[in-house]
Design brief:
Helix content is 11%, strand content 27%. By secondary structure, it is mainly β. Strands 32, 34, 35, 37, 41, 42, 43 and 45 form an eight-stranded antiparallel beta sheet that branches. Strands 33-36-44-38-39-40 form a six-stranded antiparallel beta sheet, with no helix packed on it. Strand 16 and strand 17 (267-270) form a beta hairpin. Helix 8 (493-507) packs antiparallel against helix 11.
Length: 798
């Protein structure tokens, strides 16, 4: 493992150099000896060893799940050799709202919110340590630039999977570190993490082998001071939380007629937990929160046993587990309102799941993973429907409650996930399932002997197995952008977490205007995930096959040369990138089945006409491949057109084709996943494969680029080059006054997998798979292209 010791700065030297931030001038990190560092501003003690979980022998690498990290730090007994005492009471670093009220998840570079870079607030302990105490730089400066060095390793060549001694700190890892604070509930409960490789604080998901843990302790424990931080008073619980043992007398009775009575909650549930579907109201039983509230409030259920209609239904309630207010602290043992193993009767769905049905969550009350037997189907998998004890058609999915989330009552409501057994909240626009409940014993008769005793695991009978189908989509914020995602219901939590991180890496790249992840079913439009600009790609030629396995949605689309995707010109929106100073970048994850003899198409706005010397085309920009005419045989050949039609020399004379494209040295592979991309900065086109711009010098004769257009009209009267290739004349913009006669078919559509060339839309169509496509209205940097390539995780694709 790479290890580098940096020069240690004493406090006096740092102060003399004037390095501390304004407002933090008195901050200092003191070496107390015995492996302890005291921060006199945060009033906390850090272990000097930032990867003590490994060096102590507890874990082989120190990189573990969030549950393991919490378990390790809470049970840690650290022996202080300087004072010969043992210290307990350790925790993970805290993240609290920077404004002291509520988290602001808007992604910012200037440290003014709770997600992003350059956060120096004392309420974010890890970020404060990184930026203030250790004086490290982030990947972004406050004004949106990249510093020459950043992160623990101070270099792009060794950003990840290394470690360094920074000042007084030892073994600081270049990766994500867990904080002990819960974050947003997307797509499953999240925690705050800090990435030391780039200086980014964000929401991260609990997944195996995901992050490191750095132990911190309140107060100056080396001086014998053991007190909570003045900024975070100690909280003493005064309310007894109902435990499973305390709820053992709960009983669920079968009242007949499709009604179940809970004698503890004094409520009646519909026996059919998917009645919105089985009644024919909704094909899949899922709907937004407002629709669910409306449906359940208007429901008239006919009780066939007693021949009566029953009205007055509602969605299940969520109330504070303890005290009068909701406790947003995430936990495994059911003692707060977010998390697992909640058995309080105030949370009706959680009580039904854990107490009446005796089901298991993804985590035990001690944080141990029990995925193999958790959830409604008892197999830890989503998308199943099962009969569980007395309950029929319980879905391993997510159910709405009728309770809104304070203070965000306009957009969030409490939910319960029966796949993993956790309670949290989701946006009210999400597509989830309702389960009607009614106050009291609506059957009007005493409970029958047939009952299900609380805490006893019932018989589970699978009604329908999970199918590889797209989720109804759900909305949330990623990197400050509102997105809507079509993720496969059968994807595991770990895989979903990886995909969410991959999506974030794309979404947080400035200039993104469209990003398709291809998770939808055949027959459905493929939508860009950015809410407000979905840019739906229509299928042309029939349904396009959806294949299991993809970088961003768990799926990809397969093009067989007989169909393609199209966005009509009238709906093209921000994809209409054109003009003298326009810039553009594209990125795609592709696996070619074959290359073919002539040309191929990834995507773009590119209509060529009927062939050579046809000037009626309306080309703008496109990612094409296999263009042998000017040295692009079997290579990626991104094109930019200034004229729309054929390329013209400086004297106005025409070449037979649009000849402006870059081409790297390497040929495209067949049968192997690659990332393809290009950038155009207003001057040069650069072609990228697998995150690398492979430079290629031009061979004028071999590459058939001996025309004066190539040899004398480039930079300083020289050659235009090959990769990068000099264009420098902007992107064609269609003007109906100027082009109506010369280009009678009008401006081109945006197409994926095919383009109009040689008089045909399918003559140079794509044959292969695509797992992601993004378009940007600026030229990305080489580092950004590397990050997009890494996000695709090609090694995980089949």
């Amino acid at each position: 493992m790479f290890n580098r010791t940096q020069t240690m700065l004493t406090r006096s030297a740092v102060l003399a150099a004037g390095l501390f931030l304004t407002g933090a001038a008195q901050a200092a990190l003191h070496d107390r000896g015995g492996g302890l560092l005291y921060d006199d501003v945060l009033d906390v003690t850090w272990l000097q060893d930032a990867n003590y979980a490994k060096s102590s022998g507890y874990h082989p690498t120190g990189k573990m799940s969030w549950a393991e990290a919490n378990k390790w730090v809470s049970t840690l007994v650290y022996h202080d050799p300087a004072r010969n005492v043992d210290h307990t009471g350790w925790r993970l670093p805290k993240v609290e709202p920077s404004d002291g009220k509520s988290f602001n998840h808007t992604f910012k570079l200037d440290g003014t919110t709770d997600e992003g870079y350059n956060i120096t607030s004392t309420r974010s302990e890890f970020s404060y340590m990184y930026y203030v105490n250790l004086r490290l730089d982030g990947w972004w400066t406050k004004d949106g630039k990249h510093p020459a060095t950043f992160g623990v390793m101070k270099s792009w060549t060794a950003v990840w999977n290394g470690q360094a001694d920074i000042g007084l700190v030892k073994n600081l890892q270049t990766d994500g570190y867990y904080c002990g604070s819960p974050g947003q509930p997307f797509p499953s409960p999240a925690v705050w993490v800090f990435t030391t490789a780039e200086g980014n604080q964000r929401d991260g998901l609990r997944r195996p082998d995901a992050g490191f843990a750095w132990a911190v302790h309140d107060g100056d424990i080396a001086a014998g001071v053991k007190k909570p931080s003045a900024k975070q008073p100690a909280i003493t619980a005064t309310t007894t939380v109902p435990s499973r043992a305390g709820a053992a007398h709960g009983e669920l009775y079968d009242m007949g007629g499709g009604l179940l009575y809970d004698a503890v909650l004094d409520v009646t549930w519909l026996q059919d937990a998917d009645y919105a579907r089985t009644s024919g109201f909704k094909p899949n039983g899922k709907m937004p929160w407002a629709d669910a509230v409306k449906w359940v409030s208007e429901l008239v259920y006919h009780d066939p046993v007693r021949n009566v209609d029953i009205r007055g239904w509602r969605l299940p309630k969520v109330g504070p587990v303890a005290g009068d207010k909701i406790n947003g602290r995430f936990c495994f043992d059911g003692t707060s309102d977010e998390g697992y193993n909640i058995t309080s009767p105030r949370s009706e769905l959680a009580y039904m799941f854990y107490v009446n049905l005796g089901l298991k969550g993804y985590y035990s009350s001690t944080g141990d993973i029990q995925t193999a037997e958790c959830g409604a189907a008892g197999n830890g998998k989503a998308g199943f429907t099962a009969n569980v004890g007395l309950v029929k058609n319980l879905k391993s999915h997510i159910y709405w409650s009728g309770s809104s989330v304070e203070p965000y009552t306009d957009r969030n409501a409490w939910i319960f996930d029966t796949t993993f057994g956790y309670q949290n909240f989701y946006n009210k626009n999400d597509m989830l399932s309702p389960w009607p409940v009614h106050d009291g014993n609506v059957a009007g008769v005493s409970p029958k002997p047939s009952k299900q005793t609380a805490g006893t695991r019932p018989v589970i009978t699978i009604v329908s197995a999970s199918e590889a189908k797209a989720l109804d989509t759900y909305k949330d914020n990623i990197a400050g952008i509102r997105v809507e995602l079509p993720l496969d219901e059968t994807v595991t939590p770990e895989a979903k977490a990886h995909m969410t991180k991959a999506i974030e890496d794309v979404v947080k790249t400035p200039g993104l205007i469209a990003f398709w992840v291809f998770g939808e079913n055949p027959g459905s439009p493929r939508q860009s995930i950015i809410v407000g600009a979905p840019l739906p790609l229509e299928e042309v030629g029939g349904p396009i096959t959806r294949i299991k396995g993809g970088s961003f949605s768990g799926s990809s689309v397969r093009f067989d040369g007989s169909h393609y995707l199209r966005l009509p010109r009238a709906k093209i929106g921000a994809l209409d990138i054109s003009g003298k100073d326009a810039q553009v970048s594209m990125f795609a994850v592709v696996k070619l089945d074959e290359i073919g003899k002539w040309g191929g198409t990834i995507a773009g706005i590119w209509s060529e006409g009927k062939g050579a010397n046809d000037d009626t085309g309306t080309r703008q920009y496109a990612m094409l491949y296999n263009m042998p005419t000017y040295g692009g045989m079997r290579q990626l050949t991104p094109h930019i057109s200034a004229e729309g039609g054929v390329t013209r020399r400086a004297d106005g004379s025409a070449l037979p084709w649009c000849v402006d494209y870059a081409a790297p040295r390497s040929e495209l592979p067949v049968g192997k996943w690659v990332t393809l991309g290009f950038t155009y900065d207003g001057k040069f086109i650069r072609a990228y494969m697998d995150g690398v711009m492979e430079e290629r010098a031009v061979d004028p004769v071999k590459d058939k680029r001996t025309d004066p257009y190539f040899t004398t009209e480039g930079p300083n009267g020289g050659h235009r080059g090959m990769n990068p290739y000099y264009h420098g004349r902007g992107i064609f913009r269609y003007d109906p006054k100027l082009h109506a006669e010369s280009k009678p078919k009008g401006p081109a559509d945006f197409t994926v997998g095919a383009r109009y060339a040689g008089g045909s839309m399918l003559g140079e169509a794509l044959k292969g798979r695509m797992a992601g496509l993004a378009v940007f209205n600026r030229a990305l940097t080489a580092d950004e292209m590397k990050r997009l390539h890494a996000a695709a995780r090609l090694s995980s694709l089949r």
